[in-house]
Write a structure and sequence with these properties.
CATH class of the largest domain: Alpha Beta
Shape: globular
CATH superfamily of the largest domain: Response regulator
Number of strands: 7
CATH architecture of the largest domain: 3-Layer(aba) Sandwich
Distance between the termini: 28 Å
Radius of gyration: 19 Å
CATH topology of the largest domain: Rossmann fold
Number of helices: 13
Low-confidence stretches: 150-156, 222-255
Structural class: alpha/beta
Number of domains: 2
Strand content: 5-15%
Mean pLDDT: 78
Helix content: 40-55%
Amino acid sequence: MQSDRISILLADSNVLGCRLLAQALEKHQGFVVVATAVTSAELLCALRESQPHVALIGANLQDGPLSGFASLPQLREAYPSLPWIMLLDRTDPELVVAAFRAGARGVFSRSDGDVGMLSKCISRVMEGQVWADSTQLHYLLEAFADGSKPTQPLRERGLSLLTAREEAVARLVAEGMGNREIANQLNLSEHTVKNYLFRIFEKLGLSNRVELVLYAIPRLNSPPAESVSVRMSKLGSSPKSGLDVSQPGRVWETA
């Protein structure tokens, strides 16, 4: 019966991609895709209407680069207990770490796995486990072990380090705009926008545009940092603990 199957919401960058992935997943007898979305707004609307068991969210939706991350603060606020998996086109260290910090229960790289592996990922997440491959686990361990980057003090100080104009530039970067679009939006030259970005990177201790997007999105679209921190700690908690390395290959799972 369909009620016995795991219901999935799928958000990705285009309609055809959603359709093909949905068809591939539904060949697995335990899954049914109940809704698809290609923008952040569609994703949040589909969540309300379909109430899925799990959500698969692409890092890049039609809203722009990394726009899949933009919906996460609202998703966590409205559905704190919903398990979700971030779909990446490739295993990028910054995106992997950012996804788990945002509350992902799994990260799946399409360049490193097939639909069969994705099906296993979904099943393990629905069992209450955490899914990552060995490369992603290595990135996580490096991120937690590296005490040289001053990320925590900067998180505590937040975007208050920026001037009003610098915050406006950061906001537009988080919305996926390029330098030319930002320049047009703010009536600046592209050279001036680049200068603002250099100052923003320096103040926040960031090194590139991707880091800025991942840093800015939750802070520009969510309630104060303290409440987000409380919600994320709840998402990260589990009555289960430990690390299952009994199966060889790419996958580690907490059981």
